[in-house]
Amino acid sequence: MRLEIDDIHAKPAEHAMLCVAMNASHTSVRKALQSLKTALSERGFLPEEITSIELVLAETLNNIVEHAYCDLGEGPINVKISEEPNGLIFQVTDRGRPMPNGQPPLGILAVIDGNIAELPEGGFGWFLIRELAHDLVYEHDGTSNVFSFRMNIATENGAHL
Question: Is residue 2 within a helix (H) or strand (E), and if so which, with residue range?
């Protein structure tokens, strides 16, 4: 199924369980995440699994909006989700700036030993992505960024993808 976020219509997707196309804006990201949560729930994925997917995708998509398209305006972001025997495979594509050094950040969690009110707002996203997702691959082909990862997911009937 292909979800076009700007008009929220489901369309068939070749070789994918779900596809979502959106503009690189925080509003479109929120709408896309809500549509994906609904679609995954309708397919029998457990609420806690959907929460993990939402967290990883929210961090990924917001990074694209804030960093890849920073000062470039809104551009396209596409998310493709495929079912494989070893989990769900996610492919996120955009046409923004490439990642620094051509690779995702390491996501090392900083030592947190101060007042909770003094914690930085950012810096936790890549740690969360790397904790919840597996087999991370980033490529930039000169015009597009392609970030792929796998998540081990359980469905309501107890099957693990």
Answer: strand 2-4
